[in-house]
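Figure S4 source data
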Amino acid sequence: MKKLFLSAAVILSMFAVSCSGDDDAPIVDPPSEEPGDPTEPEIPETETRTGILTENETWTNDRIWILESKVVINEGVTLTIEPGTIIKGGEGQEAAASALVVDQGGKLIADGTAENPIIFTSILDNIKKGEIAGTNLGLGNVGLWGGVIVLGNAPISVDGDAGEAQIEGIPATEPYGQYGGDNPNDNSGIIRYVSIRHGGITIGQDNEINGLTMGGVGLGTTIDHVEVVANQDDAFEWFGGTTNSSNLLAWAQQDDGLDIDQAFNGTITNAAVIQSSNSDRALEIDGPEGPDAANPADFGFTIDGLTVVDVENGEFYADFRDGAIGTIRNAVFSGTTTGEAKFRFNGPDSQNNFANGLIVFENIELVLPVGVASAEELLVDAPAGSEGNFTNNVTVLEASATPTVGADLSVFAGWTYASSQNAL
């Protein structure tokens, strides 16, 4: 036993000498003997959804969500999307085109922030979690997926006074897609600090999906701080309804910037439309379609605080069609275009409404296009003698002048794709 003790002592003393001779040697902690948590799941990079959602869900910002064909928020179901979440639409064609649809009675709570906006884009976009923009897609990349469609129960005006209709962009064979009703205060949720990019895929002849489609959307719905970029069809389209929308930005859409139909009876506040060489009208505005069109004074949209920049030979600033009714105030129209940057009153119903004060312009500023000598020259098909309804409310600016009206573009800084590309 003594011999064994001495041997152990010698070994111990040798270890002590070795350690004392190397002051810089690292001290390595022994591995933990505590077991890990085998129940903690690994966070996936992506998660896919398709079809009709029948239970409440939350889409978190720790992964990218993929839309495979249509994803429909069913009646009575709420989908919550966390701030900072990226959603990418798949490449399906025609009836299989990807889109997020809020059906009547469903709710979408997409409540982003300026620091963490919610982004809808194409699966082909290389944007990653935490980024505002990818690097591989540009303004020419359109129609890569569908868009966001919200369907409510607020009043609409359609042929035959049906009260309901099937939204464009969704085949009539689907069990969803109806919109319209008798509840002006209907609530479809919140869409705030949301950017929608590279959508508008064609699903049939002359049938594309808008960036943000609102069919019969009611006053209880929040539409605020929304950007649509590079959409193959319209950026924003309202089919009737009563919702108030604010802080909207449309850039480089290939159809219309703001499109109003079926007696939309709400207010659009602080909106900007930046046209491209492929854009159609900045504003396309239609009136009521049903028997109630006989009482036009009962209807009318309001756009208050509007900036339209027709920078690359776009089409009409505004096209008023089929008995359009409403008011545009505190708006500026500018650009260096030599194209059709004009205001057209299309058809006898719209012409009569303009002459009779049902299409109203208040506090308008504009920069005349190249080669145009007066504001009156911008009117197309205005009834003789009615021109003053426009020209008496217009101030012509020099190209270098600073407008005193129009949208506050600072609300789009930081969180939009347009801001990341220095387009504002």
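Figure S5 source data
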Amino acid sequence: MNPSFKTPAGQSAFTTVYDRALERWPIPIERLFVPTRFGRTHVLVSGPLEAPPFFLMHGMAGTSTMWAPNIAALARTHRVYMPEFAGGLRLERGGAAHGEP
């Protein structure tokens, strides 16, 4: 279980809502897992491959799904990377995946 959650049921409920938000993402999205010194971090990516990179960081109590209202406009001209913070919903530690699809 991800240490960000108190119970497996809480993690499951949050993951369900998170995945539903991504299903409603207004444009195509990639889901990457990037290795870091803290574990593998989940990164959402939208926009043309050849476009200049643009990074969006969500607030501490949120997820990158907060950018859904803005992503279509930003991704027209940029490759937008939206990492989830280490310790967040989809971080892997010690070889144990937390919510990885």
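The chain has two helices and five strands. The radius of gyration is 14 Å.
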